[in-house]
Amino acid sequence: MTSNTSPSGIASASSEYDHLSRAWTGFDSQIGNSHYWTSNTNKGWLAYEFNTPKVIAKYTISPIGLNGYVNRLPKNWTFEGSNDDVNWSILDQQTNVTTWLDGTKKEFTLSNTKSFLKYRINISTNNGGTLLSIGELEMMVDKNAVQAPTLTAVDVNREIVLNWNSIPNAISYTVKKSTTTGGPYTTVADNVYGTSFTDKAVQINTAYYYVVSAKTVDGESGYSNEATATPKGNVTPPQVEGERAILVITLNTGLEKEFDLSMAEVTAFIDWYETKALGTGPATFAINKHNNNKGPFAARKAFIVFDKVLSFEVDGYNVK
């Protein structure tokens, strides 16, 4: 790398000692003066975020290449993966690593089968120095592992629409969801053959968290990144053809209420008003508010009280 965001991915660290000790210097494929990451304390973490989830099978740590600085190198640490930068899975743990030699890297093999966007080495103790340094942190992808998709989720009219990228040689995909970030997840669709899925079994104003895995003849991938969406209560109603009208009711307080209704609904209102004016019928009339159903409601109605109505106006129109 040549910066914390170039040429690709994102390098980050718990702290950086100075401008020569940036996080990216731990991923620049060089070891030596001005080419190693240093924290301003004797513990901390160094991380790299990929553009797409990866299954890391091995990582290596190289010393900084300067005699007398082995006391800065890690002694106790965990190697971790995350898809949201909040929940971290420990993939490897090392303790009492003291046999560092200048110019000799150490390799650590993982039994990891899950895909993660971001990986970090989280160091709790170094080998006695006041600062913490790493010359180079390398991560190796298992070339035989099935890579996980990259997932997006959006709310479309009270349904959650999921889309993900195509994985080479994928036979099918499995979709899982949870109402808690990080899971546990339950399967909502298995053997999905495309790269999209619409989840209709959702409740409005409830957040859902999704992951997708890919199946090939070589096995199944780990989970994709976690994508989340919350169904909202507003739905665009279908346009209804035929005679309609804008009914404007003026109350004796001067307040105006306006409703876009079918002519049949307007006629029903007029029939109620005229019947009540003759002294019979209910004191109130319920008007369906239709596309103004904001919130967790299947329907909303406005109740008009007869003796509160000062006047009303009907403006008819046709929908074709």
Please give a structural write-up.
By secondary structure, the chain is mainly β. The protein has one helix and 23 strands. A five-stranded antiparallel beta sheet has the order 1-3-8-5-6, with no helix packed on it. Strands 13, 14, 16, 17 and 18 form a five-stranded antiparallel beta sheet that branches. The two termini are 61 Å apart. The mean pLDDT is 88.
Which residues form runs of ≥5 with pLDDT under 50?
A: none
- In helices, the fraction of residues equals under 10%
Q: Helix tally?
A: 1
Radius of gyration: 31 Å
Number of strands: 23
- The structure class reads mainly beta
- Biggest sheet, spatial arrangement of strands: 1-3-8-5-6
Shape: elongated
Q: What is the chain-wise order of helices and strands? A: EEEEEEEEEEEEEEEEEEEEHEEE
> Which percent band covers the strand fraction?
over 45%
Main beta sheet: 5 strands, antiparallel
Oligomer: single chain
Head-to-tail CA distance between termini:
61 Å
Average of per-residue pLDDT values = 88
Quick structural summary:
The protein has one helix and 23 strands.
Keywords for this structure?
mainly beta, 46% strand, 23 strands, five-stranded antiparallel β-sheet, 320 residues, elongated
In terms of topology, how is this protein built?
Elements: E1 10-13, E2 37-39, E3 44-54, E4 56-62, E5 74-82, E6 89-94, E7 106-109, E8 116-126, E9 132-134, E10 136-141, E11 151-156, E12 159-164, E13 172-178, E14 186-192, E15 196-199, E16 208-216, E17 219-220, E18 227-229, E19 242-251, E20 256-262, H1 263-277, E21 284-288, E22 301-305, E23 309-319
Antiparallel strand pairs: 1-3, 2-9, 3-8, 4-7, 4-10, 5-6, 5-8, 11-12, 12-15, 13-14, 13-16, 16-17, 16-18, 19-20, 19-23, 21-22
